[in-house]
Amino acid sequence: MLILLTTILNDDSLECRVCIQGMTVVYDLIEDGATEELIEHYLEFACNMFEEGEWKEQCKVFIDQEYEKLIKILEGEFPVETLCTLMSACEYPLPPINGACDACMVGFTFLEDLWSQDLGIELMEFVLEYVCYIFPEGKWRDECDKFMDQEYEVFIKWLDNEFPPQMICTLLDACEFPIDPIDDGLCYFCEGAFTFLYDLFDFDLMNDQQIEVVLESLCGLFNEGPARQNCDKFIDQEYEELEKYIKAEFPPTAICALVGACDVQPPVYDTECEFCRIFYRMTLDFISADFTVHDIEILLDSVCDVFQNEAQAQCVEFVNTYYEALIKALNEKWPANTACEAFNACPAQ
After folding, report:
1. Is 312 exposed, middle or buried, given 0-12, 13-18 or 19+ CB atoms closer than 10 A?
2. Burial of 97 (C-beta count, 10 Å sphere; 0-12/13-18/19+)
3. 263-272 contacts: CB < 8 A, separation 24 or more?
4. H/E run at residue 314
5. CA distance 9 to 95
6. d(C-alpha 45, C-alpha 2), whole Å
7. Three-state SS string across 257-284, please?
8. Nearest CA to 21 among 42, 6, 36?
9. Most buried in the list 85, 190, 322, 344, measured by CB within 10 Å?
10. CB-based contact 302:255 (threshold 8 Å)
11. Angle CA 196–144–99, to nearest 5
């Protein structure tokens, strides 16, 4: 069914109305099995509906250069409003933009919505080529074009691994990350970085490849220099442990203590009972609310690394002695006094 191009949509510009109606007609032509020649002829006709000027020429250039991709997009039932926005025929309803962070968040929120439609890499590459047209001509479109030219392949990887806009825009330095591993210390950075990641990602739903890309990208939060070098070194050294702890959803404080980014106060104890209570409370604090027996096993295999010297030796001996009992007690969240009495580490009260 053909729709007359002269039908006017009350709330849009002429260019937008013509584009939307024209692309709707093309949808119908494709659905009716029209030949490519007929579709191309109609698209050229649609461009000629505009008055002489920049948009008419831009329309023709777009059709000439992107015809094959355009047909694939239309065959995939891509929203015509979005397509006409990418063609700059329709104006994107931008929120107030007060800086680079706002602009970046707008652009990647737009892309995130499209990526969720599972369009495939080829069509998303097409979208990335034209996404900057959601901004009017001027500063933010120019900034967007510059970002796309510099980081195109990286954007594909980030979007394909479902990086949220906040993460991408922070990695691009458009949005500020408030912690520096040199100025603020490695411990504060580590806890802040993993809190940031936990706020943005649901690691429980991510596969190994996605987690790997997240960890590889983490140090991009910093500009080139000592801060990034320290971060890269830290990630390289602790990658396997970090991946394991993230999968187990250990809290940031636990992760950073277990990999040595944060120091744990040496336990002060005189008896096995005192050590048991200190160790058990710390271990219980290290596991997440939704932990599994496997998570507890991972923790018990590593937890003694937070101690040094005599305390570490005491910890290893304690874990080896009470390993199965510790798993049961931690899994059932027994209080420290109850657990240590059950282990016979403390006398019954």
Report:
1. middle
2. middle
3. 263/187, 264/306, 264/307, 266/307, 266/308, 266/311, 267/307, 267/311, 272/318, 272/345, 272/346
4. helix 309-331
5. 23
6. 14
7. HHCCCCCCCCCCCCCHHHHHHHHHHHHH
8. 6
9. 190
10. no
11. 60
What is each CA distance from 210 to 173, 222, 239, 251, in whole angstroms? 21, 20, 14, 19
What is the Cα–Cα distance from 47 to 43, expressed in whole angstroms?
Answer: 6
The structure tokens listed for 86 are 């990418």
User: Please, are residues 36 and 104 in contact by the beta-carbon 8 Å criterion?
Assistant: no
Q: What is the distance between the alpha carbons of residues 94 and 91, in angstroms, rounded to a whole number?
A: 8
Q: Are 182 and 229 in contact (CB under 8 A)?
A: no
Q: How far is residue 182's CA from residue 219's CA, in Å, rounded to a whole number?
A: 13
Instruction: Give residue 259's identity as a one-letter amino acid code.
Output: V
Element holding 88 (H helix, E strand): none
Quick one: which H or E segment has residue 252? helix 252-258
pLDDT tens over the chain, length 349 residues: 222 222 333 336 777 887 888 888 888 888 888 887 888 888 888 777 777 766 677 777 777 777 777 777 777 667 788 888 887 778 888 788 888 899 999 888 888 877 777 767 777 777 888 888 888 888 888 888 888 877 778 888 888 888 999 999 988 888 887 776 566 677 888 888 889 899 999 888 888 888 988 988 888 877 777 777 878 888 888 888 899 899 888 999 999 999 888 888 878 888 999 999 999 999 998 887 778 899 999 999 999 988 888 889 989 999 999 999 999 999 999 999 999 999 999 998 7
How far is 23 from 39, CA to CA, in rounded Å? 10
pTM given for the model? 0.74
Q: Which domains are seen in the chain, by residue range?
A: 14-86 (1.10.225.10), 100-171 (1.10.225), 186-258 (1.10.225), 272-342 (1.10.225)
The answer to whether residues 133 and 86 touch, using CB atoms and an 8 Å cutoff, is yes
